[in-house]
Write a structure and sequence with these properties.
The protein is mainly α. The chain has 9 helices and no strands. Helix 2 packs across helix 6.
Length: 209
């Protein structure tokens, strides 16, 4: 997907790549910043408390990003025992990533509405802002899905009482396979859970554009 633009429209390739890198960087940085604020300096000492994209991107994942048009950042290391909020600390650190993406969406929607009257719809800056909104929204919404290893699972687990520990353990082990199955089902059938969720929020955001 993304790689095809490298040969047909290099400028659009750069726009899309930079938007994805920005969304991933702000997402992972926010995890680190939240953990540091709550008393755990593990990510800070690991060099992750930075807005330098190189600290948050993996070489192989970046290659996948260029070829397939999607990717993810390197997981931010945290020590939950250092967090001030024992029960809610990990959930707070986890939700910081998607929250940063949603804040980015709001900021870029405001900027777009301010400058759009002065540019044509196919202007590169307008396209860049649109893609920033699109990527940040998708990354934020997708990560809030409560299936491990996505951020939403940490929030769900914080609300579940101890009697659900066995359920949490099994979901953690099998979560990645559930995600893969749902993605495959979405591609080969009309049962596209992720697509329906993301499209719902896209419709809301595009209403304000």
């Amino acid at each position: 997907m993304l790689l095809s633009y490298l040969f047909t429209s290099p400028q659009m390739f750069m726009v899309m790549a930079l938007a994805i890198v920005f969304a991933l960087t702000i997402h992972e940085f926010s995890h680190s910043a939240a953990a540091t604020y709550l008393g755990d300096n593990t990510s800070k000492y690991s060099g992750r408390l930075t807005l330098n994209p190189l600290a948050h991107l993996d070489v192989w994942v970046t290659l996948i990003l260029v070829i397939a048009g999607f990717g993810w950042g390197r997981p931010v290391p945290i020590n939950t025992y250092n967090l001030r909020w024992r029960r809610w600390g990990e959930a707070a650190v986890s939700i910081a990533g998607p929250l940063s993406n949603f804040i980015s969406v709001v900021i870029f929607v405001i900027i777009l509405n301010m400058i759009a009257p002065f540019f044509s719809p196919d202007n590169l800056l307008i396209q860049f802002l649109l893609f920033l909104i699109f990527v940040n929204l998708i990354l934020g919404v997708f990560n809030l899905i409560p299936i491990p290893p996505l951020d939403g699972s940490k929030v769900l687990f914080a609300f579940l009482p101890p009697r659900y520990d066995d359920f949490k353990r099994k979901l953690t082990i099998n979560g990645i396979w559930i995600l893969i199955l749902l993605v495959i089902l979405g591609r080969i059938s009309s049962f596209d859970v992720f697509g329906a969720i993301i499209n719902f929020f896209l419709d809301i955001v595009y209403f304000f554009i």
